[in-house]
Design goal:
Elements lengths: L1 H23 L13 H4 L3 H17 L6 H6 L1 H26 L6 H26 L3 H15 L1 H14 L4 H11 L2 H19 L8
Helix pairs in contact: 1-3, 3-5, 5-6, 6-7, 6-9, 7-10, 8-9
Length: 209
C-alpha cells in the first residue's frame, strides 16, 4: 500500500510539472504574450528566461534522482543528472534572486521569493558538499530539502489557483502565494526526513526460532 501511494504521488507530481512546463512556454515566445507583468518582465527577459528555463530543467530532472531503480541501474547517469540538477538550481536561483527584487506585491514578495532563491541554492550546495565528502545519507536528506523547494515552481500556480477560488484579491493572493509555494514544502520535507530516519533506526524484528 505504501509503495502504491508513493508511486501515485510521484505520478501526480510529474503531471503537475508537465503542466507547469506547458504554462511557462509563453515566456519564451517573442514579446512574452500573456506574461504576468509584461511591463516589467520585458526589461528582464534574459534573466527571467534563464530563471524559468533552468527551473524547468531542475524539476524535470529532480525526480529521477530519487528513483532507486534508476539510480541503482544507471550510476553514471545518476551522477550526470545530479550535476545537471545542481547546475540548473544555480542558474534558476540566481535569476530568481534578481527577479525577486521586481516581483509584484512589494516587500512581502521581494522577501518571500528572495528567501526562496537563497534557501534553494543553499540546500543544493550543502547536498553537493555532502556527496563530495562521501556522506550519502546526509546528501539524500539535503537533496530532499532542495527538491521540495524546487517544487515551488509548481506550488506557486497551485496556491494561486486555490487562493483565487477562495476570493483573494490579486495583491493578497500573490503575496500569500510567494510564501506558501515553498515554506510548507520544506516543512513536509523535514517531517518526511524525520520519519525516514526513525524507520531506518527501528530494530528489525528477530526471526522466530
Amino acid at each position: 500500500m505504501e509503495t502504491i501511494a508513493r508511486r501515485t504521488g510521484w505520478v501526480i507530481m510529474y503531471l503537475l510539472i508537465i503542466l507547469l512546463v506547458l504554462a511557462s512556454s509563453r515566456y519564451f515566445a517573442p514579446g512574452m504574450p500573456d506574461a504576468f507583468q509584461p511591463e516589467v518582465y520585458l526589461d528582464y527577459s534574459v534573466v527571467l528566461r534563464v530563471h524559468i528555463g533552468a527551473g524547468i530543467v531542475a524539476v524535470l530532472v529532480g525526480p529521477f534522482q530519487f528513483w532507486s531503480g534508476f539510480r541503482d541501474r544507471h550510476r553514471v547517469w545518476h551522477k550526470r543528472m545530479g550535476a545537471t540538477y545542481l547546475t540548473a538550481v544555480g542558474f534558476a536561483a540566481a535569476g530568481g534572486l534578481v527577479m525577486a527584487t521586481v516581483s509584484y506585491g512589494g516587500l512581502v514578495t521581494h522577501i518571500g521569493f528572495g528567501l526562496l532563491a537563497i534557501t534553494w541554492s543553499g540546500t543544493a550546495a550543502v547536498a553537493y558538499v555532502r556527496i563530495r565528502a562521501g556522506n550519502w545519507p546526509s546528501h539524500r536528506e539535503w537533496m530532499i530539502r532542495s527538491f521540495s523547494i524546487a517544487l515551488a515552481f509548481v506550488m506557486l500556480r497551485v496556491w494561486m489557483g486555490i487562493l483565487g477560488a477562495l476570493g483573494a484579491d490579486e495583491l493578497e493572493l500573490y503575496q500569500t502565494a510567494s510564501w506558501l509555494c515553498w515554506v510548507p514544502n520544506i516543512i513536509v520535507a523535514e517531517f518526511y526526513i524525520g520519519w525516514y530516519r526513525n524507520r531506518q533506526a527501528a530494530p528489525t524484528a528477530a526471526p522466530a526460532e
